[in-house]
Specification:
A: mainly beta; seven-stranded mixed sheet; four-stranded antiparallel sheet; 11 strands; 0% helix; globular; B: mainly beta; five-stranded antiparallel sheet; 53% strand
């Protein structure tokens, strides 16, 4: 039972490079999320998708784009990476449409932008 | 601005003691409340959820909710060194919106 799988686990980029973080869930959840976590800042929502075909901005969307490819997959793209995007990124999913409750998290991606 | 506030800690307790973790939230009509545990270098995992006023117990964990005071807490009885982690409070606020997380409280249980 894989749950939420995100790749890669680690990535180092140079400023200006682009990359896509992949996320897939096998729990038949409707809602998926991308968070970043920085020391002392807690979890901050970047984008979320309440259902297949919809995406919405979270608290810190600037510099990111997302694609809900299908019900299972939700990707996060950095078009031109900046050092401020150095962070740990978590994908999550939830099955409850109302309230976006009970999140299940992937194992995280440690991203460094030099 | 809808906010969830937690003391960042660290909160240090001796092994076997009760650890008390607190959280306040700004939106009076919030409906659902969650506690996540996050070990260093790992992802958050859900340990408790509570939806109505009062206490909810699950093993050594008790979640307490007081909507009038906009306050939710987590008690860990018989604390163990393995409970040492960061505990994140999360609140579902009005409407069909994602959870809002506090910044977390780091708990250290001293053997």
């Amino acid at each position: 039972n894989a749950g939420v799988t995100q790749t890669p686990k680690f990535q180092v980029l140079k400023t200006g490079q682009s990359m896509t973080l992949q996320c897939a869930q096998d729990m038949n959840h409707n809602s998926m999320y991308w968070y970043r976590q920085d020391p002392g800042m807690g979890l901050r929502l970047i984008y979320y998708s309440a259902s297949e075909g919809t995406t919405d901005k979270g608290e810190v969307p600037n510099g990111y784009n997302v694609s809900r490819l299908n019900k299972r997959e939700f990707s996060l793209r950095l078009e031109s990476a900046a050092p401020s995007q150095t962070s740990v990124y978590f994908c999550a999913s939830s099955g409850s449409g109302q309230g976006h409750q009970k999140l299940f998290f992937g194992s995280g991606t440690q991203l460094s932008v030099l | 601005q809808k906010e969830v506030e937690q003391n960042s800690g660290p909160l240090s307790v001796p092994e076997g003691a009760i650890a008390s973790l607190n959280c306040t939230y700004s939106d009076r009509v919030s409906q659902s409340f969650f506690w996540y545990r996050q070990y260093s270098g790992k992802s958050p995992e859900l340990i408790m959820s509570i939806y109505s006023n009062g206490d909810k117990e699950d093993g050594r964990f008790t979640a307490q909710l007081n909507k009038a005071s906009q306050y939710v807490s987590l008690l860990i009885r018989d604390s163990q060194p393995s409970d040492s982690a960061t505990y994140l409070c999360a609140v579902n606020m009005t409407g069909n919106t994602p959870l809002v997380f506090g910044k977390g409280t780091r708990l250290s249980v001293i053997a």
